[in-house]
């Protein structure tokens, strides 16, 4: 915030400290996340007005945790962001190249490439950086045949999918009813980055709609062994495109059809 107040986050700093302490005591908890959380807490207690009585119990709790070192995983200035060399024209060329592909070569998709694409997906924005999504890679032929027939839109090419990604949203990251749709936004942002990454790796993709229907949800939850708090958001077919395979022409709307400016002429 600008300007930053001398006292802030009183509504949730106590809960944050409790959750951090619990997380730190969980065996195998992600070390990278703990370092990030430690740095943020260190920064917070370094900048707030420690003389404020409302913070006293929280300061004591924080000091009992023994967080004594900071890292570079704290908010930074916009000018310090990572630099890129991708031009608008290059990006436009990439998005035009990525088209929904349904016909693939009979060729195994290396798992390393899937991992690389998921890394790019992980850089997508998510609400409060909760990253309430994950990917399940299905590259076993019998499993693909079983799962690919469940969503709509796969008739005719489901036996030609060498790799099928299930994008999973995690409701447990959002406790408020008002956030019930956040997993769909977060997962979709990550999915588009995944598909663009695949294109740069020589892989073609096809986003497959998942109709959220009660009976289908039961079947897919069982097939993928999902806990109750997780939902399938969509599927993505991945593979090496068949050179002679058909690609549907997609006429796109003009930007003037999609864009409205508010505030009068500029």
Explain what you see.
The chain is α+β, with helices and mostly antiparallel strands and 266 residues long. 38% of the residues lie in helices and 11% in strands. It has 9 helices and 4 strands. Strands 1-2-4-3 form a 4-stranded antiparallel sheet, sandwiched between helices. Helix 5 crosses helix 7. The chain is globular and about 70 Å long. The two termini are 28 Å apart. The relative contact order is 0.13.
Give Rg in angstroms: 23 Å
Q: Largest sheet, order of strands side by side? A: 1-2-4-3
How many DSSP-defined strands? 4
Low-confidence stretches: none
Instruction: Report the sheet-strand fraction.
Output: 5-15%
First-to-last CA distance: 28 Å
List keywords for this structure.
266 residues, alpha+beta, 4-stranded antiparallel β-sheet, 38% helix, 11% strand
Helices and strands, with pairings:
Layout: H1 13-24, H2 31-47, H3 56-64, H4 88-97, H5 111-122, E1 133-138, H6 141-148, E2 163-170, H7 182-200, E3 204-209, H8 214-224, E4 230-239, H9 255-258
Antiparallel strand pairs: 1-2, 2-4, 3-4
Helix pairs in contact: 1-2, 5-7
């Amino acid at each position: 915030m600008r300007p930053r107040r001398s006292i802030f986050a009183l509504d949730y700093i106590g809960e944050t400290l409790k959750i951090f302490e619990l997380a730190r005591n969980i065996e195998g908890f992600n070390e990278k996340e703990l370092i990030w959380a430690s740095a943020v807490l260190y920064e917070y207690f370094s900048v707030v007005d420690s003389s404020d009585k409302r913070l006293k119990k929280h300061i004591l709790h924080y000091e009992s945790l023994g967080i004594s070192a900071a890292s570079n995983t704290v908010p930074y200035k916009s000018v310090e962001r990572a630099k890129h060399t991708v031009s608008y024209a290059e990006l436009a060329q990439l998005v035009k190249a990525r088209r929904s592909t349904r016909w693939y070569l009979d060729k195994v998709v290396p798992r390393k490439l899937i991992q690389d694409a998921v890394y790019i997906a992980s850089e997508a924005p998510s609400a409060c950086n909760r990253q309430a999504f994950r990917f399940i890679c299905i590259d076993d032929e019998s499993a693909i045949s079983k799962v690919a027939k469940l969503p709509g839109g796969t008739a005719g090419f489901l036996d030609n999918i060498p790799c099928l990604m299930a994008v999973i949203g995690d409701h447990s990251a959002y406790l408020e009813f008002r956030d019930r749709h956040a997993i769909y936004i977060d997962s979709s942002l990550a999915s588009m980055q995944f598909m663009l990454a695949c294109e740069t790796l020589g892989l073609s993709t096809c986003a497959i709609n998942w109709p959220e229907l009660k009976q289908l949800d039961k079947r897919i939850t069982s097939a993928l062994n999902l806990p109750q708090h997780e939902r399938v958001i969509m599927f993505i077919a991945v593979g090496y495109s068949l050179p002679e395979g058909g690609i549907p022409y997609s006429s796109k709307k003009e930007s003037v059809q999609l864009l409205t400016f508010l505030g009068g002429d500029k």
